[in-house]
């Protein structure tokens, strides 16, 4: 056996395979990092708060109203996930609703945590690219197209509203008009 092969095999022999505890830790380390980050952020958020007062406010909250608002928010995520399907069609013909919904939720979470208004969109694209066989840039491109189409449609509707405001006002009906819409001097023609 040559010295080169012997060195390779000796390195392989020295390497110990990962045990079940090490493989579980490797698999779950992102979850542990997220839990630690959430704990740190909660501590930072409530470090100067009176927890008894916070608990009183939580208990005084209107539970049906909170539940209704959560359902409406989740429905909004669902509508966005349904809409995103049409933008993803050129990249992935059959995109699962669950992956789209989860990615939308991750994007909104990032929007709530990060200071910029649209910072969650890259997070949304990244989350989707981790769940489905779609590249990050392709997923991000679908979001850019989606945002530009929304901007276009809102600019069209705002231009329509502004043109409606600049048109001459319609005459308001008053007591001097008849049922056929003509003024009193033309009553004979009704």
What features would you describe in this structure?
The chain is built from seven helices and no strands. With 190 residues, it is mostly helical. α5 packs antiparallel against α6 (120-131) and α6 packs across α7. 8% of the residues are buried.
Sheet-strand content, in percent, reads under 5%
Determine the number of helices (DSSP H or I, runs of at least 4 residues).
Answer: 7
Low-confidence stretches: none
Please compute the radius of gyration using only Cα atoms: 30 Å
Structural class of the secondary elements? mainly alpha
Mean pLDDT figure: 77
Provide the succession of SSEs.
HHHHHHH
- Alpha carbon gap, first and last residue: 116 Å
Beta strands, count? 0
Instruction: Name the overall outline.
Output: globular
Helical amount among residues, as a percent range? over 70%
Largest sheet: none
What's the layout of helices and strands?
Layout: H1 3-14, H2 20-46, H3 51-60, H4 63-88, H5 97-113, H6 120-131, H7 136-166
Helix pairs in contact: 4-5, 5-6, 6-7
Question: What labels describe this entry?
Answer:
single chain; 190 residues; mainly alpha
């Amino acid at each position: 056996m040559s010295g080169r092969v012997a060195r390779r095999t000796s390195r392989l022999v020295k390497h110990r395979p990962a045990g079940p505890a090490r493989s579980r830790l490797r698999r779950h380390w992102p979850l542990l990092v997220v839990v630690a980050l959430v704990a740190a952020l909660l501590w930072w958020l409530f470090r100067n708060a009176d927890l008894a007062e916070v608990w009183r406010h939580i208990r005084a909250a209107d539970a049906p109203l909170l539940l209704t608002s959560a359902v409406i928010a989740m429905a909004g995520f669902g509508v966005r996930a349904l809409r995103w399907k049409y933008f993803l069609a050129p990249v992935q013909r059959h995109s699962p609703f669950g992956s789209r919904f989860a990615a939308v939720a991750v994007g909104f979470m990032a929007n709530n945590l990060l200071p910029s208004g649209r910072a969650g969109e890259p997070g949304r694209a990244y989350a989707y690219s981790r769940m489905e066989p779609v590249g990050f840039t392709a997923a991000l491109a679908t979001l850019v197209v989606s945002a530009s189409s929304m901007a276009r449609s809102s600019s069209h509707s705002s231009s329509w509203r502004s043109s409606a405001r600049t048109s001459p006002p319609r005459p308001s009906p008053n007591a001097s008009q008849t049922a056929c819409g003509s003024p009193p001097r033309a009553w004979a023609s009704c």
